[in-house]
Amino acid sequence: MKARPGQLTGAVKTTTGRPVAGARVNIFGFTKAGTEFRTTARTGNDGVYAVTLPAGGLYRVSNAFAPLKTAQGVVDHRLHPLERNFEVLSSNTSGLVRNFELRLSGLKPAETNASGNPRDPVSYYGQIIRVLLTGDGPTTDQQSTVLTFRLMPVGRLADGSEGRTLTLRRTVKHLRTEEGLGFDLDKTQLLHDVPLGVYSVTATVSRSAGAAQGILLSLDGSARRPAVTVNFRPSESTPGTSIFNVHAHLEGAAAAAPQSQRPTPAMSPTPAPTLTPEPSSVIRGHINAPNAYPGNVLLVLEDYAITPEDALLEVRFRSLDGAPDLVVRRTLRQIRAGNVGDNSRPLTETGYLPLLNPGAFLVSAALVSAHGEGRTVDLRPDGVAAGREVPLRWAPAERYGVGGGKVVYVTINRTP
């Protein structure tokens, strides 16, 4: 596809290559005269959109959505950008192509502004089910009691594709943990990244010994049954769907059907890092169960020597895959906000660094503000020796899955 001079165009397709009609692409910017400019382009039956922009201005694609019809109404589903750079400089001599893909699951890229800083917290294209647990009394072993949820598609998914049965597991401890900054979503009450569709949901419980037992589920806490239907509803306030609540009732668990399974092994918590005592002249950062979201890097201040919290740390990701290098800046105060679980800040003001394209990098960091100037910085990714420049790699299979987040400990030395 080629754009005419001054034109922004592109195609919207599903992951199987089918065109998506009726998708809208929102463009925002300023004309050459400084006037604010907004417009929306829509795709035709061929999945292609096109819009001519006033010459000489600076514009960007702010977001793009596809209307997906469900039994509960039309859901505005965010589209995945296939190009990294959203900035558009319109001229009379060239145009620009920006393509999008309809994805029902997987990690969303962090949208960035002109400075390269992430605009929104990283999340998933899939939907969210919140499990509300009842009947887990004080005698329940919260760590070794595991609930297994099976989500079986009813009909096709919202994009017309065939779904597959999802099997998701949580311990009782996980199901009693509300989501929050710094939590691994796989260790909370959320079943996340569920492709948009209708599902029949069943569940079993496995304790430290014995066969799996079926448990009853409900949608409102009262009408209990072996299976419930999850049918996501469009959100009334934002694009996407509302979180769907399912109640799981442990009391009165019955022996499961003949296909009883061996108990699921107990899920061990992530061990806290071992801390070595340091002289009193060193301030140690607060560490609160560091877990990075898939496709993200979480900076954790391990040690920093009497350095003001408004000191600015610049982190450089030098790609080994031929992708563009990335530079991200955070103050020490912002990094600590993520370490102590400060929910009042957006992720862009914490130690979370969303990466658009996780891969293989050499990572280094330096203090670039007057505060702390001259101090050296060592980085230590989990499982890697500390150094001034350290390797950070994502295997293709782990980039957006469990364990796809990387924790990097930061030490600011007392002397250069």
TrEMBL record:
Residues 266-276 have a biased composition (Pro residues). SUPFAM superfamilies: Carboxypeptidase regulatory domain-like. Transmembrane segments: none annotated. Keywords: Plasmid. Residues 254-265 have a biased composition (Low complexity). It comes from the Bacteria. Residues 254-276 are annotated as: Disordered. InterPro entries: CarboxyPept-like_regulatory. The keyword rRNA processing does not apply. This is Carboxypeptidase regulatory-like domain-containing protein.
